[in-house]
Amino acid sequence: MKIKPHILDFKMAFEHFCIHAGGRAVLDELEKNLQLPSWHMEQSRMTLYHFGNTSSSSLWHELAYAEAKGRIMKGDRTWQIAFGSGFKCNGAVWKALKTISPAKERSPWVDEIHQLPVDVPTVSFIK
Q: Which of 35, 43, 76, 93 has the most crowded Cβ, counting Cβ within 10 A?
């Protein structure tokens, strides 16, 4: 008998997700397995597209992306998830103490946030 695993709905606990942009495959699998819509993955995918894999610092670029888009509101919870070599996985949860006004913040995204997200095509295999 095959039993389907129970997947918690993490969207009930967190408003935002910053998932280590270690590569497209990592993001694809987490999106699928955590059942996250593309909106929740946008900051991770745009960080990977713009900066590449910058190791754990990608989490801060992702949070800055959400702030630059004006998505962080007072009381919002953001789950940062990072991965290392082997079986390492770390997470942090942040609660916004104030609503972030993009116009008042300095951000690595400031010059181009209005142009994002861009369409990043999916990988297709050659047969």
A: 43
